[in-house]
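pls ignore typos typing on phone
adenosine-5'-diphosphate + seq
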Amino acid sequence: MGRIVRLDQNMINMIAAGEVIERPASAVKELMENSIDAGATRVVVAVEDGGRKLISITDNGEGMDAEDLLAAFESHATSKIRQTADLNHIATLGFRGEALASIASIAQVRAVSRTAQSDQAHCLEIDCGDRKPVTPCSGDIGTTIQIRDIFYKTPARRKFLRTANTEMGHITEQFTRIALPKGQLDLVLIHNGRELYHLTGTLRLRQRIAQLFPMLPADDLIDTQTDEKGIRIRALLGHPSTSRTNHRFQYAFLNGRFIRDKFISHAIKEAYRGLLEPNRFPVAFLFIEMPYDEYDVNVHPTKTEVRFYNSNLVHSQILGTMREKLLGTELHMPARLASGPSASLEENRESQRARRQEIADAMADFFQRHRPTHHQQQFDLQADRPAVGPVSGHAERPPAPAAELPEFVFEGPRYLQIHDSYIVAQTDEGFVIIDQHALHEAMLVETLRKRARSGPLESQRLLLPETFEVTEAQADAIENHTDLIVRLGVELAPFGPRTYAIQAFPTLLAKVSPLDFIQDLLDLLISRKAAPSPEEMLDDVLNMTACKAAIKAGQKLTDSEIAQLLADRERYESISRCPHGRPTTLTFSIGELEKQFKRT
Ligand code: ADP
Ligand code: MG
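k done
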Protein backbone atom coordinates (compact mmCIF):
# COMPACT_ATOMS: atom_id res chain seq x y z
CA MET A 1 0.00 0.00 0.00
CA GLY A 2 1.42 3.31 -1.02
CA ARG A 3 4.51 1.53 -2.25
CA ILE A 4 4.09 2.74 -5.78
CA VAL A 5 4.77 6.40 -6.44
CA ARG A 6 4.90 8.44 -9.59
CA LEU A 7 8.52 9.48 -10.27
CA ASP A 8 9.28 13.17 -10.42
CA GLN A 9 10.15 14.69 -13.78
CA ASN A 10 13.86 14.91 -13.15
CA MET A 11 14.02 11.23 -12.24
CA ILE A 12 12.13 10.46 -15.43
CA ASN A 13 14.64 12.48 -17.42
CA MET A 14 17.59 10.80 -15.76
CA ILE A 15 16.16 7.40 -16.57
CA ALA A 16 15.64 8.49 -20.17
CA ALA A 17 19.21 9.78 -20.18
CA GLY A 18 20.32 6.27 -19.32
CA GLU A 19 18.94 5.16 -22.66
CA VAL A 20 20.10 7.99 -24.87
CA ILE A 21 23.19 9.41 -23.21
CA GLU A 22 25.61 6.62 -22.57
CA ARG A 23 28.79 8.68 -22.73
CA PRO A 24 30.05 12.07 -23.98
CA ALA A 25 29.93 10.86 -27.57
CA SER A 26 26.15 10.32 -27.31
CA ALA A 27 25.70 13.95 -26.31
CA VAL A 28 27.87 15.04 -29.24
CA LYS A 29 25.71 12.99 -31.58
CA GLU A 30 22.42 14.39 -30.28
CA LEU A 31 23.64 17.99 -30.34
CA MET A 32 25.13 17.73 -33.83
CA GLU A 33 21.88 16.21 -35.03
CA ASN A 34 19.96 19.11 -33.53
CA SER A 35 22.23 21.61 -35.25
CA ILE A 36 21.71 19.93 -38.60
CA ASP A 37 17.95 19.75 -38.06
CA ALA A 38 18.08 23.49 -37.32
CA GLY A 39 19.44 24.05 -40.82
CA ALA A 40 23.00 24.92 -39.78
CA THR A 41 25.64 25.05 -42.50
CA ARG A 42 28.50 25.20 -40.02
CA VAL A 43 28.91 23.27 -36.78
CA VAL A 44 31.91 23.51 -34.48
CA VAL A 45 32.37 20.80 -31.86
CA ALA A 46 34.91 21.64 -29.17
CA VAL A 47 35.69 19.08 -26.52
CA GLU A 48 37.90 19.04 -23.47
CA ASP A 49 39.28 16.00 -21.71
CA GLY A 50 37.48 13.56 -23.98
CA GLY A 51 34.18 15.35 -23.31
CA ARG A 52 34.29 14.68 -19.59
CA LYS A 53 35.11 18.26 -18.77
CA LEU A 54 33.38 20.09 -21.60
CA ILE A 55 31.43 19.52 -24.76
CA SER A 56 30.59 22.69 -26.62
CA ILE A 57 28.68 22.78 -29.87
CA THR A 58 28.10 25.95 -31.84
CA ASP A 59 25.96 26.18 -34.95
CA ASN A 60 24.68 28.88 -37.27
CA GLY A 61 21.22 27.33 -37.54
CA GLU A 62 17.81 28.94 -37.10
CA GLY A 63 18.22 29.38 -33.33
CA MET A 64 15.52 29.59 -30.69
CA ASP A 65 13.69 32.48 -29.05
CA ALA A 66 13.32 32.72 -25.26
CA GLU A 67 10.12 30.69 -25.17
CA ASP A 68 11.45 27.86 -27.34
CA LEU A 69 14.73 27.80 -25.47
CA LEU A 70 12.86 27.07 -22.28
CA ALA A 71 10.61 24.51 -23.94
CA ALA A 72 13.48 22.75 -25.70
CA PHE A 73 14.72 21.36 -22.38
CA GLU A 74 11.34 19.98 -21.32
CA SER A 75 11.05 16.25 -21.79
CA HIS A 76 9.10 15.05 -24.82
CA ALA A 77 9.29 18.55 -26.25
CA THR A 78 10.02 18.80 -29.94
CA SER A 79 9.33 21.03 -32.89
CA LYS A 80 9.79 18.14 -35.32
CA ILE A 81 6.57 16.19 -35.03
CA ARG A 82 3.06 17.21 -34.03
CA GLN A 83 0.79 14.21 -34.50
CA THR A 84 0.98 10.45 -34.84
CA ALA A 85 0.85 10.56 -38.60
CA ASP A 86 4.12 12.53 -38.62
CA LEU A 87 5.89 9.49 -37.25
CA ASN A 88 5.38 7.78 -40.60
CA HIS A 89 7.64 10.09 -42.56
CA ILE A 90 10.34 11.52 -40.39
CA ALA A 91 12.71 13.65 -42.39
CA THR A 92 14.69 15.09 -39.48
CA LEU A 93 17.45 13.34 -37.54
CA GLY A 94 15.68 13.92 -34.23
CA PHE A 95 12.00 13.62 -33.31
CA ARG A 96 11.81 12.08 -29.83
CA GLY A 97 12.14 15.37 -27.98
CA GLU A 98 14.21 13.75 -25.28
CA ALA A 99 17.85 14.60 -25.89
CA LEU A 100 18.10 18.07 -24.37
CA ALA A 101 16.00 17.18 -21.33
CA SER A 102 18.11 14.08 -20.76
CA ILE A 103 21.39 15.91 -21.12
CA ALA A 104 20.29 18.70 -18.79
CA SER A 105 19.43 16.15 -16.12
CA ILE A 106 22.93 14.71 -15.92
CA ALA A 107 25.29 17.69 -16.39
CA GLN A 108 25.74 21.42 -16.12
CA VAL A 109 24.32 22.89 -19.28
CA ARG A 110 24.47 26.39 -20.67
CA ALA A 111 22.57 27.18 -23.86
CA VAL A 112 22.77 30.43 -25.77
CA SER A 113 20.56 30.90 -28.80
CA ARG A 114 19.41 33.66 -31.12
CA THR A 115 17.07 33.66 -34.09
CA ALA A 116 17.52 35.79 -37.19
CA GLN A 117 14.48 37.85 -36.17
CA SER A 118 15.95 38.87 -32.84
CA ASP A 119 18.78 41.31 -32.20
CA GLN A 120 19.77 39.63 -28.99
CA ALA A 121 20.39 36.13 -27.80
CA HIS A 122 18.95 34.34 -24.77
CA CYS A 123 20.74 32.22 -22.27
CA LEU A 124 19.56 29.32 -20.16
CA GLU A 125 21.53 27.49 -17.48
CA ILE A 126 20.52 24.15 -16.01
CA ASP A 127 22.47 22.22 -13.42
CA CYS A 128 21.40 18.59 -13.36
CA GLY A 129 17.76 19.48 -13.87
CA ASP A 130 17.91 22.59 -11.73
CA ARG A 131 17.11 25.47 -14.06
CA LYS A 132 17.69 29.18 -13.77
CA PRO A 133 15.46 31.68 -15.56
CA VAL A 134 16.14 32.51 -19.19
CA THR A 135 18.06 35.78 -19.48
CA PRO A 136 18.96 37.99 -22.44
CA CYS A 137 22.61 37.94 -23.41
CA SER A 138 24.82 38.64 -26.39
CA GLY A 139 25.36 36.03 -29.08
CA ASP A 140 25.36 35.34 -32.82
CA ILE A 141 22.49 33.90 -34.78
CA GLY A 142 22.38 30.21 -34.09
CA THR A 143 22.86 28.12 -31.00
CA THR A 144 25.69 27.20 -28.65
CA ILE A 145 25.21 24.45 -26.12
CA GLN A 146 27.85 23.72 -23.53
CA ILE A 147 27.85 20.64 -21.35
CA ARG A 148 30.19 20.53 -18.38
CA ASP A 149 31.15 17.68 -16.06
CA ILE A 150 28.85 15.09 -17.51
CA PHE A 151 27.47 12.60 -14.91
CA TYR A 152 29.08 14.53 -12.08
CA LYS A 153 26.14 13.91 -9.78
CA THR A 154 25.86 10.28 -10.78
CA PRO A 155 29.24 8.82 -9.80
CA ALA A 156 28.10 5.34 -10.75
CA ARG A 157 27.77 6.47 -14.37
CA ARG A 158 30.85 8.67 -14.34
CA LYS A 159 32.89 5.71 -13.18
CA PHE A 160 32.15 4.01 -16.47
CA LEU A 161 33.79 6.72 -18.49
CA ARG A 162 37.11 5.70 -19.98
CA THR A 163 40.25 7.75 -20.53
CA ALA A 164 40.07 10.94 -22.53
CA ASN A 165 41.64 9.09 -25.44
CA THR A 166 39.03 6.37 -25.52
CA GLU A 167 36.13 8.78 -25.09
CA MET A 168 37.61 10.88 -27.87
CA GLY A 169 37.65 7.81 -30.08
CA HIS A 170 33.90 7.47 -29.57
CA ILE A 171 33.35 11.15 -30.22
CA THR A 172 35.38 11.01 -33.43
CA GLU A 173 33.29 8.08 -34.55
CA GLN A 174 30.02 9.95 -33.97
CA PHE A 175 31.44 12.99 -35.71
CA THR A 176 32.42 10.79 -38.65
CA ARG A 177 28.98 9.21 -38.90
CA ILE A 178 27.36 12.61 -39.08
CA ALA A 179 29.96 14.18 -41.32
CA LEU A 180 30.11 11.51 -44.03
CA PRO A 181 26.65 11.97 -45.53
CA LYS A 182 26.59 15.75 -44.93
CA GLY A 183 29.05 16.76 -47.57
CA GLN A 184 27.68 20.27 -47.94
CA LEU A 185 28.37 21.28 -44.32
CA ASP A 186 31.40 22.88 -42.69
CA LEU A 187 32.24 20.73 -39.71
CA VAL A 188 35.02 21.21 -37.19
CA LEU A 189 36.13 18.97 -34.35
CA ILE A 190 38.50 20.36 -31.71
CA HIS A 191 39.98 18.50 -28.75
CA ASN A 192 41.77 20.38 -25.95
CA GLY A 193 42.23 23.35 -28.25
CA ARG A 194 43.67 21.27 -31.09
CA GLU A 195 41.76 21.03 -34.36
CA LEU A 196 41.35 17.34 -35.24
CA TYR A 197 39.16 17.75 -38.31
CA HIS A 198 38.08 20.66 -40.39
CA LEU A 199 35.83 19.45 -43.18
CA THR A 200 34.75 22.16 -45.55
CA GLY A 201 31.45 22.05 -47.38
CA THR A 202 33.22 21.99 -50.72
CA LEU A 203 34.89 18.61 -50.21
CA ARG A 204 33.85 15.81 -52.51
CA LEU A 205 32.79 12.57 -50.87
CA ARG A 206 36.03 10.82 -51.71
CA GLN A 207 38.05 13.67 -50.21
CA ARG A 208 35.91 13.59 -47.11
CA ILE A 209 36.57 9.88 -46.74
CA ALA A 210 40.28 10.52 -47.24
CA GLN A 211 40.28 13.10 -44.45
CA LEU A 212 38.26 11.04 -42.03
CA PHE A 213 40.02 7.76 -42.81
CA PRO A 214 43.66 8.49 -43.56
CA MET A 215 44.38 4.77 -43.28
CA LEU A 216 42.19 3.88 -46.26
CA PRO A 217 43.27 4.25 -49.88
CA ALA A 218 40.34 6.56 -50.65
CA ASP A 219 41.50 7.12 -54.23
CA ASP A 220 41.14 3.44 -54.99
CA LEU A 221 37.56 3.09 -53.78
CA ILE A 222 35.30 1.84 -56.53
CA ASP A 223 32.45 4.28 -57.02
CA THR A 224 29.04 3.29 -58.34
CA GLN A 225 25.45 4.41 -58.18
CA THR A 226 21.98 3.26 -59.15
CA ASP A 227 18.50 4.70 -58.95
CA GLU A 228 15.85 2.03 -59.39
CA LYS A 229 12.57 0.98 -57.84
CA GLY A 230 12.45 4.06 -55.63
CA ILE A 231 15.83 3.39 -54.04
CA ARG A 232 18.82 5.51 -54.89
CA ILE A 233 22.17 4.02 -53.92
CA ARG A 234 25.68 5.39 -54.06
CA ALA A 235 28.42 3.00 -53.05
CA LEU A 236 32.14 3.46 -52.58
CA LEU A 237 33.67 0.05 -52.37
CA GLY A 238 37.08 -1.11 -51.24
CA HIS A 239 39.25 -3.29 -53.44
CA PRO A 240 39.19 -6.86 -52.06
CA SER A 241 42.86 -6.54 -51.16
CA THR A 242 42.01 -3.77 -48.69
CA SER A 243 39.67 -6.02 -46.72
CA ARG A 244 39.76 -6.03 -42.95
CA THR A 245 39.43 -8.42 -40.06
CA ASN A 246 36.21 -6.77 -38.87
CA HIS A 247 33.37 -4.67 -40.26
CA ARG A 248 34.80 -1.47 -38.80
CA PHE A 249 34.96 0.13 -42.24
CA GLN A 250 31.43 -0.60 -43.34
CA TYR A 251 29.18 2.41 -43.16
CA ALA A 252 25.57 2.60 -44.29
CA PHE A 253 23.52 5.78 -44.34
CA LEU A 254 19.81 6.01 -44.93
CA ASN A 255 18.65 9.46 -45.98
CA GLY A 256 21.67 10.96 -44.22
CA ARG A 257 21.30 8.94 -41.04
CA PHE A 258 23.92 6.40 -40.01
CA ILE A 259 22.27 3.03 -39.52
CA ARG A 260 23.17 -0.51 -38.66
CA ASP A 261 21.12 -3.09 -40.40
CA LYS A 262 21.50 -6.82 -40.75
CA PHE A 263 20.01 -6.92 -44.24
CA ILE A 264 22.49 -4.34 -45.44
CA SER A 265 25.43 -6.10 -43.78
CA HIS A 266 24.35 -9.32 -45.40
CA ALA A 267 24.04 -7.71 -48.82
CA ILE A 268 27.59 -6.30 -48.50
CA LYS A 269 28.95 -9.70 -47.56
CA GLU A 270 27.14 -11.40 -50.41
CA ALA A 271 28.36 -8.86 -52.93
CA TYR A 272 31.98 -9.81 -52.17
CA ARG A 273 31.29 -13.53 -52.20
CA GLY A 274 34.17 -15.31 -53.89
CA LEU A 275 36.31 -12.19 -53.83
CA LEU A 276 37.30 -12.49 -50.19
CA GLU A 277 38.26 -15.14 -47.68
CA PRO A 278 35.23 -15.95 -45.53
CA ASN A 279 36.64 -14.26 -42.43
CA ARG A 280 37.53 -10.97 -44.16
CA PHE A 281 35.33 -7.88 -44.31
CA PRO A 282 35.33 -5.43 -47.20
CA VAL A 283 35.55 -1.68 -46.89
CA ALA A 284 32.23 -0.22 -48.05
CA PHE A 285 30.43 3.10 -47.79
CA LEU A 286 26.77 3.02 -48.78
CA PHE A 287 24.50 6.02 -49.11
CA ILE A 288 20.89 5.01 -49.57
CA GLU A 289 18.03 7.35 -50.29
CA MET A 290 14.42 6.28 -50.32
CA PRO A 291 11.02 7.70 -49.36
CA TYR A 292 10.65 8.36 -45.62
CA ASP A 293 7.46 6.38 -45.41
CA GLU A 294 9.11 3.14 -46.52
CA TYR A 295 10.76 2.49 -43.18
CA ASP A 296 10.29 3.17 -39.48
CA VAL A 297 13.03 4.91 -37.47
CA ASN A 298 11.10 4.78 -34.26
CA VAL A 299 12.43 1.40 -33.19
CA HIS A 300 15.54 2.28 -31.20
CA PRO A 301 16.29 5.09 -28.71
CA THR A 302 19.45 6.17 -30.50
CA LYS A 303 17.78 5.81 -33.90
CA THR A 304 20.61 3.74 -35.38
CA GLU A 305 18.27 0.91 -36.27
CA VAL A 306 15.35 1.13 -38.64
CA ARG A 307 12.69 -1.26 -39.84
CA PHE A 308 12.30 -1.45 -43.60
CA TYR A 309 8.82 -2.25 -44.81
CA ASN A 310 10.32 -4.06 -47.77
CA SER A 311 13.68 -5.29 -46.57
CA ASN A 312 14.01 -7.81 -49.38
CA LEU A 313 13.89 -5.04 -51.95
CA VAL A 314 16.50 -3.01 -50.07
CA HIS A 315 18.69 -6.10 -49.83
CA SER A 316 18.42 -6.99 -53.48
CA GLN A 317 18.98 -3.43 -54.69
CA ILE A 318 22.15 -3.07 -52.63
CA LEU A 319 23.43 -6.50 -53.56
CA GLY A 320 22.66 -5.92 -57.23
CA THR A 321 24.33 -2.51 -57.35
CA MET A 322 27.48 -3.72 -55.63
CA ARG A 323 27.76 -7.09 -57.30
CA GLU A 324 27.34 -5.72 -60.78
CA LYS A 325 30.03 -3.12 -60.23
CA LEU A 326 32.47 -5.51 -58.57
CA LEU A 327 32.10 -8.13 -61.27
CA GLY A 328 32.48 -5.50 -63.96
CA THR A 329 35.70 -4.13 -62.47
CA GLU A 330 39.16 -5.47 -63.18
CA LEU A 331 40.05 -6.58 -59.66
CA HIS A 332 43.11 -8.67 -60.36
CA MET A 333 45.51 -5.78 -60.28
CA PRO A 334 46.64 -5.35 -56.70
CA ALA A 335 45.47 -2.09 -55.23
CA ARG A 336 48.17 0.49 -54.75
CA LEU A 337 47.97 0.37 -51.01
CA ALA A 338 46.97 -2.99 -49.75
CA SER A 339 46.76 -3.47 -46.04
CA GLY A 340 46.58 -6.36 -43.66
CA PRO A 341 47.88 -9.80 -44.41
CA SER A 342 46.21 -9.75 -47.79
CA ALA A 343 47.07 -11.91 -50.73
CA SER A 344 48.83 -9.19 -52.64
CA LEU A 345 51.11 -8.31 -49.75
CA GLU A 346 51.97 -11.93 -49.32
CA GLU A 347 52.66 -12.20 -53.02
CA ASN A 348 54.83 -9.15 -52.79
CA ARG A 349 56.85 -10.58 -49.98
CA GLU A 350 57.06 -13.86 -51.82
CA SER A 351 58.36 -12.23 -54.97
CA GLN A 352 60.84 -10.17 -52.98
CA ARG A 353 62.06 -13.28 -51.29
CA ALA A 354 62.37 -15.04 -54.63
CA ARG A 355 64.32 -12.11 -56.04
CA ARG A 356 66.68 -12.00 -53.12
CA GLN A 357 67.16 -15.71 -53.48
CA GLU A 358 68.06 -15.27 -57.15
CA ILE A 359 70.65 -12.67 -56.28
CA ALA A 360 72.01 -14.84 -53.48
CA ASP A 361 72.25 -17.83 -55.80
CA ALA A 362 73.98 -15.81 -58.47
CA MET A 363 76.49 -14.50 -55.97
CA ALA A 364 77.06 -17.91 -54.45
CA ASP A 365 77.65 -19.22 -57.94
CA PHE A 366 80.14 -16.46 -58.61
CA PHE A 367 82.07 -17.11 -55.42
CA GLN A 368 82.08 -20.84 -56.01
CA ARG A 369 83.78 -20.30 -59.32
CA HIS A 370 86.07 -17.44 -58.42
CA ARG A 371 86.87 -17.61 -54.72
CA PRO A 372 86.39 -21.19 -53.82
CA THR A 373 87.35 -21.09 -50.14
CA HIS A 374 85.39 -18.09 -49.13
CA HIS A 375 81.70 -18.09 -48.52
CA GLN A 376 80.00 -14.73 -48.72
CA GLN A 377 76.72 -13.85 -47.03
CA GLN A 378 73.95 -11.62 -48.21
CA PHE A 379 71.16 -12.39 -45.83
CA ASP A 380 70.09 -10.67 -42.74
CA LEU A 381 68.17 -12.51 -40.13
CA GLN A 382 67.76 -9.52 -37.94
CA ALA A 383 65.96 -6.47 -39.08
CA ASP A 384 68.16 -4.13 -37.11
CA ARG A 385 71.42 -4.05 -38.94
CA PRO A 386 72.82 -4.44 -42.42
CA ALA A 387 73.83 -7.87 -43.61
CA VAL A 388 77.50 -8.38 -42.94
CA GLY A 389 80.28 -10.75 -42.32
CA PRO A 390 81.61 -14.06 -43.43
CA VAL A 391 80.68 -17.29 -41.71
CA SER A 392 82.19 -18.08 -38.39
CA GLY A 393 84.68 -20.88 -38.61
CA HIS A 394 85.66 -19.69 -42.05
CA ALA A 395 86.24 -16.15 -40.97
CA GLU A 396 89.62 -16.65 -39.40
CA ARG A 397 91.03 -17.93 -42.65
CA PRO A 398 91.91 -15.01 -44.87
CA PRO A 399 90.90 -15.64 -48.44
CA ALA A 400 93.93 -16.93 -50.30
CA PRO A 401 94.86 -15.18 -53.50
CA ALA A 402 92.93 -16.85 -56.28
CA ALA A 403 96.02 -17.58 -58.33
CA GLU A 404 97.50 -19.88 -55.69
CA LEU A 405 94.44 -22.03 -55.46
CA PRO A 406 94.09 -25.29 -57.29
CA GLU A 407 91.29 -25.10 -59.78
CA PHE A 408 87.79 -26.46 -59.00
CA VAL A 409 88.40 -26.77 -55.27
CA PHE A 410 85.21 -25.79 -53.51
CA GLU A 411 84.89 -25.99 -49.82
CA GLY A 412 81.14 -26.06 -49.23
CA PRO A 413 79.47 -24.82 -46.09
CA ARG A 414 80.26 -26.87 -43.02
CA TYR A 415 76.74 -26.97 -41.77
CA LEU A 416 73.47 -28.61 -42.57
CA GLN A 417 69.86 -28.00 -41.68
CA ILE A 418 67.96 -31.12 -40.68
CA HIS A 419 64.20 -31.55 -40.35
CA ASP A 420 63.93 -27.85 -41.15
CA SER A 421 64.45 -27.22 -37.46
CA TYR A 422 68.00 -28.01 -36.40
CA ILE A 423 71.36 -26.96 -37.71
CA VAL A 424 74.33 -29.24 -37.48
CA ALA A 425 77.56 -27.27 -37.76
CA GLN A 426 81.22 -28.22 -37.64
CA THR A 427 83.36 -26.50 -35.01
CA ASP A 428 87.08 -26.66 -34.33
CA GLU A 429 86.48 -29.08 -31.45
CA GLY A 430 83.82 -31.21 -33.04
CA PHE A 431 80.29 -30.19 -33.96
CA VAL A 432 77.17 -28.58 -32.54
CA ILE A 433 73.46 -29.15 -33.02
CA ILE A 434 71.51 -25.96 -32.80
CA ASP A 435 67.80 -25.51 -32.26
CA GLN A 436 67.24 -22.75 -34.81
CA HIS A 437 64.19 -21.26 -33.10
CA ALA A 438 65.68 -21.34 -29.60
CA LEU A 439 68.96 -19.79 -30.72
CA HIS A 440 67.39 -16.99 -32.72
CA GLU A 441 64.96 -16.31 -29.89
CA ALA A 442 67.76 -16.09 -27.34
CA MET A 443 69.68 -13.66 -29.53
CA LEU A 444 66.63 -11.51 -30.12
CA VAL A 445 65.82 -11.35 -26.43
CA GLU A 446 69.33 -10.14 -25.69
CA THR A 447 69.13 -7.47 -28.37
CA LEU A 448 65.66 -6.38 -27.27
CA ARG A 449 66.67 -6.11 -23.62
CA LYS A 450 69.74 -4.09 -24.46
CA ARG A 451 67.78 -1.71 -26.65
CA ALA A 452 64.83 -1.38 -24.29
CA ARG A 453 67.16 -0.43 -21.44
CA SER A 454 68.28 2.68 -23.26
CA GLY A 455 64.83 4.02 -24.16
CA PRO A 456 61.91 3.11 -26.40
CA LEU A 457 62.66 0.63 -29.17
CA GLU A 458 63.23 2.24 -32.51
CA SER A 459 60.00 2.25 -34.47
CA GLN A 460 58.67 2.94 -37.88
CA ARG A 461 55.38 4.56 -38.87
CA LEU A 462 53.03 2.28 -40.76
CA LEU A 463 52.13 3.50 -44.19
CA LEU A 464 48.59 2.35 -43.61
CA PRO A 465 47.74 2.14 -39.91
CA GLU A 466 46.06 -1.18 -39.11
CA THR A 467 42.91 -0.94 -37.02
CA PHE A 468 41.57 -3.49 -34.62
CA GLU A 469 38.66 -3.81 -32.25
CA VAL A 470 39.19 -4.37 -28.56
CA THR A 471 37.18 -5.84 -25.74
CA GLU A 472 36.69 -3.85 -22.54
CA ALA A 473 39.49 -5.85 -20.94
CA GLN A 474 41.82 -5.14 -23.83
CA ALA A 475 40.97 -1.43 -23.76
CA ASP A 476 41.81 -1.44 -20.04
CA ALA A 477 45.08 -3.24 -20.74
CA ILE A 478 46.05 -0.61 -23.29
CA GLU A 479 45.19 2.21 -20.94
CA ASN A 480 46.97 0.65 -17.98
CA HIS A 481 50.18 -0.08 -19.87
CA THR A 482 50.71 3.01 -21.97
CA ASP A 483 54.33 3.37 -20.75
CA LEU A 484 55.17 -0.17 -21.63
CA ILE A 485 53.60 0.10 -25.05
CA VAL A 486 55.59 3.25 -25.74
CA ARG A 487 58.79 1.52 -24.64
CA LEU A 488 58.13 -1.22 -27.14
CA GLY A 489 58.08 1.35 -29.92
CA VAL A 490 54.42 0.69 -30.59
CA GLU A 491 52.07 3.60 -31.13
CA LEU A 492 48.36 2.96 -30.68
CA ALA A 493 45.78 5.66 -31.27
CA PRO A 494 42.11 5.35 -30.40
CA PHE A 495 40.01 5.15 -33.51
CA GLY A 496 36.30 5.02 -32.97
CA PRO A 497 34.51 3.06 -30.29
CA ARG A 498 36.50 0.12 -29.05
CA THR A 499 38.83 0.50 -31.97
CA TYR A 500 42.49 1.36 -32.10
CA ALA A 501 44.87 2.03 -34.96
CA ILE A 502 48.46 0.82 -34.94
CA GLN A 503 50.37 3.88 -36.12
CA ALA A 504 53.93 2.82 -35.49
CA PHE A 505 55.66 -0.51 -34.96
CA PRO A 506 59.17 -1.51 -33.85
CA THR A 507 61.65 -1.86 -36.71
CA LEU A 508 63.13 -4.93 -35.05
CA LEU A 509 59.84 -6.70 -35.67
CA ALA A 510 59.64 -5.83 -39.33
CA LYS A 511 58.78 -9.42 -40.19
CA VAL A 512 55.99 -9.79 -37.65
CA SER A 513 52.36 -8.97 -38.44
CA PRO A 514 51.49 -5.92 -36.31
CA LEU A 515 47.93 -7.12 -35.72
CA ASP A 516 49.04 -10.57 -34.56
CA PHE A 517 51.63 -9.06 -32.33
CA ILE A 518 49.24 -6.63 -30.67
CA GLN A 519 46.69 -9.37 -30.06
CA ASP A 520 49.32 -11.50 -28.33
CA LEU A 521 50.60 -8.52 -26.42
CA LEU A 522 47.12 -7.73 -25.11
CA ASP A 523 46.51 -11.35 -24.19
CA LEU A 524 49.73 -11.33 -22.23
CA LEU A 525 48.99 -8.03 -20.49
CA ILE A 526 45.56 -9.27 -19.48
CA SER A 527 46.82 -12.63 -18.26
CA ARG A 528 49.58 -11.02 -16.17
CA LYS A 529 47.33 -8.53 -14.40
CA ALA A 530 49.16 -8.91 -11.11
CA ALA A 531 52.64 -8.45 -12.51
CA PRO A 532 54.90 -7.52 -9.60
CA SER A 533 56.83 -4.74 -11.31
CA PRO A 534 56.86 -2.89 -14.62
CA GLU A 535 60.37 -4.26 -15.28
CA GLU A 536 59.19 -7.83 -14.89
CA MET A 537 56.26 -7.11 -17.13
CA LEU A 538 58.58 -5.64 -19.72
CA ASP A 539 60.76 -8.73 -19.50
CA ASP A 540 57.77 -10.97 -20.09
CA VAL A 541 56.72 -8.90 -23.03
CA LEU A 542 60.19 -8.91 -24.55
CA ASN A 543 60.35 -12.69 -24.21
CA MET A 544 57.04 -13.01 -25.96
CA THR A 545 58.21 -10.57 -28.62
CA ALA A 546 61.39 -12.51 -29.31
CA CYS A 547 59.46 -15.73 -29.54
CA LYS A 548 57.12 -14.24 -32.12
CA ALA A 549 59.86 -12.63 -34.16
CA ALA A 550 62.25 -15.58 -34.15
CA ILE A 551 62.73 -18.06 -36.95
CA LYS A 552 60.32 -20.91 -36.41
CA ALA A 553 60.96 -24.60 -36.07
CA GLY A 554 59.98 -26.20 -39.34
CA GLN A 555 61.09 -23.20 -41.36
CA LYS A 556 63.41 -24.03 -44.20
CA LEU A 557 66.46 -21.78 -44.21
CA THR A 558 68.75 -20.99 -47.10
CA ASP A 559 72.48 -21.64 -46.73
CA SER A 560 73.07 -17.95 -46.40
CA GLU A 561 70.48 -17.58 -43.67
CA ILE A 562 72.05 -20.42 -41.73
CA ALA A 563 75.48 -18.90 -42.19
CA GLN A 564 74.19 -15.59 -40.90
CA LEU A 565 72.65 -17.22 -37.86
CA LEU A 566 75.95 -18.90 -37.07
CA ALA A 567 77.90 -15.70 -37.59
CA ASP A 568 75.55 -13.74 -35.35
CA ARG A 569 75.87 -16.39 -32.69
CA GLU A 570 79.46 -15.34 -32.11
CA ARG A 571 78.40 -11.86 -31.08
CA TYR A 572 76.18 -12.84 -28.18
CA GLU A 573 76.97 -13.73 -24.60
CA SER A 574 74.16 -15.50 -22.79
CA ILE A 575 72.54 -17.51 -25.49
CA SER A 576 73.16 -21.02 -24.32
CA ARG A 577 69.53 -21.14 -23.28
CA CYS A 578 66.40 -19.67 -24.79
CA PRO A 579 64.16 -17.46 -22.62
CA HIS A 580 62.09 -20.51 -21.69
CA GLY A 581 65.20 -22.16 -20.29
CA ARG A 582 65.68 -24.71 -23.03
CA PRO A 583 69.19 -25.20 -24.37
CA THR A 584 69.86 -23.63 -27.73
CA THR A 585 72.91 -25.72 -28.59
CA LEU A 586 74.17 -29.22 -27.96
CA THR A 587 77.96 -29.59 -28.24
CA PHE A 588 79.77 -32.74 -29.33
CA SER A 589 83.54 -33.06 -29.27
CA ILE A 590 85.59 -34.89 -31.82
CA GLY A 591 86.92 -36.97 -28.91
CA GLU A 592 83.43 -38.21 -28.11
CA LEU A 593 82.85 -39.10 -31.73
CA GLU A 594 86.07 -41.00 -31.91
CA LYS A 595 85.19 -42.86 -28.74
CA GLN A 596 81.79 -43.81 -30.14
CA PHE A 597 83.37 -45.09 -33.32
CA LYS A 598 85.95 -46.96 -31.32
CA ARG A 599 88.74 -45.00 -32.92
CA THR A 600 90.50 -44.54 -29.61
P1 ADP B 1 14.37 16.53 -30.87
O1 ADP B 1 15.62 16.83 -31.60
O2 ADP B 1 14.06 15.09 -30.88
O3 ADP B 1 13.24 17.37 -31.27
P2 ADP B 1 15.78 17.58 -28.61
O4 ADP B 1 15.58 17.41 -27.15
O5 ADP B 1 17.05 17.17 -29.16
O6 ADP B 1 14.60 16.83 -29.31
O7 ADP B 1 15.52 19.09 -28.96
C1 ADP B 1 14.30 19.70 -28.59
C2 ADP B 1 13.97 20.85 -29.51
O8 ADP B 1 14.85 21.92 -29.28
C3 ADP B 1 14.10 20.55 -30.98
O9 ADP B 1 12.91 19.96 -31.48
C4 ADP B 1 14.36 21.92 -31.58
O10 ADP B 1 13.17 22.60 -31.84
C5 ADP B 1 15.09 22.63 -30.46
N1 ADP B 1 16.54 22.65 -30.70
C6 ADP B 1 17.43 21.83 -30.17
N2 ADP B 1 18.68 22.13 -30.57
C7 ADP B 1 18.57 23.17 -31.40
C8 ADP B 1 19.50 23.94 -32.17
N3 ADP B 1 20.81 23.68 -32.16
N4 ADP B 1 19.02 24.95 -32.91
C9 ADP B 1 17.70 25.24 -32.93
N5 ADP B 1 16.79 24.53 -32.24
C10 ADP B 1 17.19 23.53 -31.48
MG1 MG C 1 17.46 16.14 -31.00
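Residues 30, 34-35, 37-38, 59, 61-64, 72, 77-80, 94-101, 143 surround adenosine-5'-diphosphate (ligand 1) (CB under 6 Å). The radius of gyration is 32 Å. more later
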